[in-house]
Amino acid sequence: MQTTIILIRHGQTGWNAEKRYMGDSDIALDRTGVSQVKKLRVKLRKIKVHRVYCSDLARAVQTARIMFDGVVLKQMPELREMSFGIFEGLRYAQIMRKYPVIGGSFMETPFETMIPRGEHPRDFQKRVLKAFRKIVSLGRNKTSVVVTH
């Protein structure tokens, strides 16, 4: 048997609909998000899943619980979205108006830009890669699902 990892992004939240930077803010799914996840659940119902991992933020946990009711979830904070610090809750235009220098820098060179009170993109990358390596090593010859951002 081969090792399979299925990646699922959480359903829509109110902040997604409003095009706000959400990062590690703990925002729940909205009605549309719940509906999206239920539709995906129907499409994936025939796949045998051995393990389910998810970020510990509400939108990912809700998505995983709806998708895989009755399956034990392994919540991993390492799978959280990157913290966008002072950008959290803001729309792109608001960021560019309030923080034009740092906003412009982040858009042009995101891996070189540190958002105040946020997580450096390289640290985010390292954190998530470490989590994926762990998931792969624990799920050899199995099908694992990762619900994240």
Structure overview:
By secondary structure, the protein is α/β, with parallel strands linked by helices. Helices cover 42% and strands 13% of the residues. α4 (92-98) packs across α5. The radius of gyration is 17 Å and the shape is globular.
List the helices and strands and how they pair.
Layout: E1 4-9, H1 14-17, H2 31-44, E2 51-54, H3 58-67, E3 73-75, H4 92-98, H5 100-108, H6 121-138, E4 143-148
Parallel strand pairs: 1-4, 2-3, 2-4
Helix pairs in contact: 2-3, 4-5
Radius of gyration: 17 Å
Note the total helix count: 6
The major beta sheet can be summarized as: 4 strands, parallel
Order of strands across the widest beta sheet? 1-4-2-3
Query: What percentage of residues falls in helices of 4 or more residues?
Result: 40-55%
Number of strand elements: 4
Low-confidence stretches: none
Please state the structural category: alpha/beta
Question: What's the average pLDDT?
Answer: 96
Shape: globular
How far do the termini sit from each other? Answer: 28 Å
TL;DR of this structure?
By secondary structure, the protein is of the alpha/beta class. The protein is 42% helix and 13% strand.
Pick out its properties.
149 residues, single chain, 4 strands, four-stranded parallel beta sheet
